[in-house]
Amino acid sequence: MATFKPKFIKPDTDDAIADITGVEEPQTSTFVYNANHNLGLTEQRERLPIRKYRDQILYCLEQHQVVILVGETGSGKSTQVPQYLYEWGWHSKGCIGITEPRRVSTVTLANRVAQERGELVGDTVGYAVRFQERISNETKIKFVTEGILLRELLADPLLTQYSVIIVDEAHERNMLTDLLLGLLKKILRKRSQLKLIISSATIDASFFSEFFSWPGADKEVSVKLSIEGRMHAVHHFYLNEPCADYVKETVATIWKLHQKEPPGDILAFLTGQEEVLEALDLIKEYIASEETATLKALPMYGSMSSQDQLSVFFTPPKGVRKVVLATNIAETSITIPGIVYVIDCGYVKVKWFNPTTCSDSLMVVPVSKASAIQRAGRAGRVRPGKVYRLYTKQDYDALAPRQPPELRRSELSGAVLQLKALGIGNILRFDFPSPPPAKNLLAALETLYALDALDEEGQLTKPVGFLLAELPFTAMLSKMLHVSGKLGCAEEIITIIAMLQVQSIFSRPVSAAAQQSGRIAHRHFEVAEGDLITLLNVYTAFVEEGMTKEFCGQYYLIYRNLKRACELREQLINLARKKYGIPIFSCKGDVELICKCITAGFFTQVAYLHHSGVYRQISSGTELAIHPNSTLYTLPQAQYVVYGELLQTTKLFMNHVTVIKKEWLTELAPHYYQQTTVRD
DNA sequence: GAGCACTGC
């Protein structure tokens, strides 16, 4: 083994020795570090970093309509600020609402705050997320997901039941965050007594304060407060020269680090499953060269089975260092305990909507500074840590502050429907925090017009437009459901929709042999009609076999995702029947009828088989290919297919493909197909 | 014969 050369330089001048002194035994707890764990809850609250800002926050909120709160992780802002407001009496004028981007954090925070107040959740402190609600007449502090608040807007456009809204984690800039912020700005101007607190990371604070200032408003409509967090220091290392292959560099860095650094687990960020497995193979070669294994390498990516994912949470035996090779899943979604060293390859895979082809591109791009900081932070959770960035300091300085917000790079028909339902007539003039490209908005308007959700004037149609705006999935799937109610197969269509909402139900095992067995097992469900009917088959088999984990193991299916699809399906059946009066019937195996419904939703996304042997988009003539993940990839080519999504990678790939008959198009979408000529 | 990060109603 070559000797370790200091390839990394530190931006700060501290001697490297300083990092090694004071190293404690590795922490093995899976909980977030809490220095005050043996104090009572009240004393704990008093000791939180945010406590000394309490009066200032309350004062600012008295003086201004919008307050921007900048606080690091662990500052206690999500749990404390709602209580400060309550204790100061803000609840007497209406609810204190807190929005969260994810369901889990919504429920967890509500429970935590209720506990701190010595109450049960559902009394003063409540929450509402999809599928679960703990709200009573006494509820004054209400934690909700962003999606729930947007739904509440439909019934109460001025949010009159609230006196204060706190938008937590606003810096994430999800599609729903941006929609909510745009709408809240409108509401604030109409309801001067409503207050807004935006809780954000440092990087976006000035952006938000500019967005929430308008002519004629109090000049200091927004106020920034910065609250430090409770993270340990993380030392940063950079490459002197850019590297050619970050997968190899990651593995080499892991190995050097393992030889030279004191105990502590390693987390390496790569962009995709393929890279993770490649790096895993490479590091295993290094490990095999040792007599006794002192390094244990584990992969972590989204489509692994739950059981395989669990293994990254185990504490390695004494004398063994754990290294986790992960995708972005470890950046925010999953916290792996014991991590002291982070390796950041500097890249990330992002989806980007292309309005010309209505496809998503999946591209590997440099991470943003915000992501790089977030990744580095994963090293400082248990004790002071180190991050090795596989790029130069100059490259780091040149990184974009953040990834463009989701709303600027996504398909927008859902967002447009939502805004139309709230009475926003001219979508192009809506005050988005970051306006999306006009082309994207126009593509959404065209899609909605084709689906008969909007009329020539761009008004929501009755009943289709209003129904599509209310249903909680994409416009095309909602249209599919609407038609299935009329054709008598809503039960099957709801199953398919539920299966499409969850993450992949087909697991991708780690080893090559298991991957092969998985593929063979999946064939069990495959049918010539295509992917959506295949999904229906998986669901039916899962239910018939008693919905067991064993069944999923045997057929390489992901239990947690299938289980969630079942939950969703139950909810959708109830929703469709009770709220929207859609008759729920089963077509009892009439597959053609189901395929017709699918066509009724996806008729704008059709490809025909050109005589040259490749598929072409019916609307534009663009060449398309069947995605290798599709059931139809290995089957003889059908003349006409509809697809659920287009993905641009090495080619323009169709996914979620269904075989259809040409005459269904004119039968189900005559308004769209009368002028379109099909060239063979 | 290609490859898919993550959420939400």
TrEMBL record:
One GO cellular component, as annotated: catalytic step 2 spliceosome
Protein name: RNA helicase
The Helicase C-terminal domain, residue ranges: 246-423
Annotated Gene3D superfamilies: 1.20.120.1080, P-loop containing nucleotide triphosphate hydrolases (3.40.50.300)
Enzyme class: hydrolase
Coiled-coil spans in chain: none
Matches recorded under PROSITE patterns: DEAH_ATP_HELICASE, HELICASE_ATP_BIND_1, HELICASE_CTER
Organism for this UniProt entry: Drosophila rubida
Keywords: ATP-binding, Helicase, Hydrolase, Nucleotide-binding
Keyword ATP-binding: yes
Catalytic activity: ATP + H2O = ADP + phosphate + H(+)
InterPro entries per record: AAA_22 (IPR049945), DEAD-box_helicase_OB_fold (IPR011709), DNA/RNA_helicase_DEAH_CS (IPR002464), HA2_WH (IPR048333), Helicase-assoc_dom (IPR007502), Helicase_ATP-bd (IPR014001), Helicase_C-like (IPR001650), P-loop_NTPase (IPR027417)
E.C. numbers: 3.6.4.13
GO terms of molecular function: ATP binding; ATP hydrolysis activity; RNA binding; RNA helicase activity
Domain Helicase ATP-binding: 58-221
